[in-house]
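Both lines are given unchanged directly below:

***
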Amino acid sequence: MSETTASLRRKISGAGNLQSVVRTMKALAASSIGQYEQSARALGDYYRAVELGLSVCFRDADSSASMTGETKQTNDNVTGAVVFGSDQGLVGRFNDVVADYAIKTLAGPANKANVWAVGERVHARLEDSGLPLLGLFTVPNSVKAISPLVGQILMESETHRNRDEAAELYLFYNRPASGAVYAPVSQRLLPLDQTWRRELVELSWPMNNLPEIMGGKTETLSALIREYLFVSLFRACAESLASENAGRLAAMQRADKNIDELLDDLNRTFHRLRQSGIDEELFEVVSGFEALKGAEN
């Protein structure tokens, strides 16, 4: 079917409108990346401070193992996992990357995994893989919305731990990476066992003198553990959101480039067709003039 100037104008107009939407989404993604990355950087310093505080507490031989929720490891222990994905599309392979990483890590006949998904897109991807899903959480749309999500995850995981349905809890999410948009990572969050305490005790204190614990040691340890769980989940969610928007920005940049190329092609075709029409009209005018001139003679 041959193109007309009218149809080409409609296509050029439609491509221009689509490009405006794409560039708006690029701007939104770029601004969102900034707020989530800033939040993650701030949490990194706070996370380090909490770890150092826990390190001091565990250097004290009187620290109680029961305060850390240590569980006995048996072959029947169930692994719980929280996989952070997205609710919206236009993010490239963001959900596939983290879902494939979680599926590969949790795979195996000896593993019994129950999974919570953060985001409808990754939930569907995990469901297709056959992993047993315990629930679905909505992806936060701002930094302020992350805290309620963290509270929901902690409540759900605690409920299942009390039922002995999940002895371990892992976090799977995409983290911003240099040289690439993002990379999938995992973090073992629970249980807070002897291995976890040993790693904290081995942390080097930044000064020569260790601080003293003021007030009740049990209350201090309990408060630091709550902060550790909260900030671990908060940082994982913030880094996932930063990666999601980075993926969306990359996808919109590719779309913007493709639309530019399409517009260039459409404009060239339009101008060629328009010039062809002008040439035909001029040819008809000249032919008519020559015919009239010949008739007069």
